Amino acid sequence: MLATRKPLVLSLLGVLMLSAGPGFAQDAAPHDDNARIRLAMLQPPRSGLTPLSDDAFKLSRWSAAETLIRLDPDGLPQPFLATAWAQVDDHTWRFVIRKDVKFHDGTDLTPERVVASLVAATQAAPKPRILDGVELEITADGDDAVLVRSRDVDPLIPNRLSSPQLAILAERAYGADGRVNPIEAGTGPFVLKEINGTTSAKLDRFDGYWGERAQVAGIDADYVPDGTARAAALRTGTAHVVEAIPVSQAALLDQNLIHEVPMPRTNTLYLNTKNGAFANPEMRRIAAAAIDRETIVRMVYEGRADVARGLLGPALPWADGLRAAVGAPEPGDASGAKIVLATFTDRAELPEVAVFLEQQLTQAGFDVTMEVRQYAHIEADALAGRFDAFILSRATVLDSGDPVAYMFSDFACEGSFNISQLCDQDVDAALRRAAEAAAGEERQRAIIEAEAAILATHAAVPMLHERVIQGEAADVVEAVRDPRERELVNTRTHIRAE
């Protein structure tokens, strides 16, 4: 049972956020107030920028859509569209809604509007992954608050409500067919004006914003899946800020313009436990023993990554201190077992990783066929279990600041992103214990126990933890270097005046 019953006492940081909006004091340096910031984004949208998909993180990175809660660098909840919250009982939380907030279409933020947005997320098919295994009832409570009731005891309700996939949008965003169109429907300092398919998007400064005024006039975002082209955009000045410059391009750029950001992102080999060769646990152990992580980090990432000791990397410093040492599996001979190894091109390093894995698995006796496509063209087949092995770069705390949601999504029997097709009762039991544990050290220990249960199945072989390389032009000030990939441009980001 949870002991917390008192309203949260806001820290000085929270008070500052309440009074000044999501940003802090304005940068006093001269800036070009009419400048537009140009972005080269890694991946095009997959679902028309609906916030009920991973496209939500683009809306968040552009500061177009906002949530009730935001997380601080330690993953702790802070005020955003909710100014305060309290736990009413084991299953119920009350969130006070910020007053005097306008949506981009001029309508008001109200508790009823919050309820409608959150209910739409709970009824989506598929659900946002932050809601995997979670059942919520959301109702208005008077004219200033909403109540969120969970079926199960859930200490992470505030964290869950920070997920960009639970952004609060205006009524106009929601169509009768269940589709969500975010144009002119958010509450952030930038208003989405144009969605140009998988090519680009345009945003303008929103002068009716409840917080501090943005320091640039707008954002022009281009989708540039090719890593070499993204690097060229930084080199030539075509883009002010560039996402995910490939390691192979980093050495060719002005080192003053690139910045390494340690990421809670793990490069993992997922093995199909339901069909094919890896339905046999012994074959999974042979594959796990064959992986030479150090060579991959050295040769593909040029040392700009960390060798994995588990699913959770150095971005969660507490994980390694709680993790027990586990011996490596013994090498074996796969005796010519046929497997299809797949990955995608959107992250430039992954096809190179696939080449090394093909060599290592072949040496272990597997007969390997490779398949490489763009992510948009391969995700459905991966989720349907059509490959024996799949290489994925996976964010581990993207949604809630807590890795349980990622673990449940990827490894629970009912997980919505279960590429390994894993269904293991010990894993599910460990995930339930972690989900029910109180925040803090108790929860951290339960998470590491769940990680150990997952790794014992060899359904996932973590290889390395990535560091993202972000490019920023010399005249860009305060672009956000966010390990959780939620922010990129905010109210303080600007272009230095000449």
- The radius of gyration computed from the alpha-carbon positions, rounded to a whole number of angstroms, is 23 Å
Based on the coordinates given, report the CATH architecture of the largest domain.
3-Layer(aba) Sandwich
How many alpha or pi helices? 14
Q: Report the portion of residues in β strands.
A: 15-25%
Helix content: 25-40%
Would you write up a description of this structure?
With 498 residues, this protein is α+β, with helices and mostly antiparallel strands. It has 2 domains: 235 residues, Periplasmic binding protein-like II (D-Maltodextrin-Binding Protein, domain 2, 3-Layer(aba) Sandwich), CATH 3.40.190; 205 residues, Dipeptide-binding Protein, Domain 3 (Dipeptide-binding Protein, domain 3), CATH 3.10.105. Helices cover 25% and strands 23% of the residues. The strands form 4 sheets. Strands 1, 8, 9, 10, 11, 12, 13, 14, 15, 16 and 17 form an 11-stranded mixed sheet that branches. A 4-stranded antiparallel sheet has the order 4-5-7-6, covered by helices on one side. A hairpin with a 5-residue loop joins strand 2 and strand 3. The longest helix is centred in the last third of the chain and has 17 residues. It starts with 11 loop residues before the first helix and ends with a strand. One of its GO terms (molecular function) is peptide transmembrane transporter activity. InterPro entries: Peptide/Ni-bd (IPR030678), SBP_5 (IPR039424), SBP_5_CS (IPR023765), SBP_5_dom (IPR000914). It is found in: Periplasm. It holds the Pfam family SBP_bac_5.
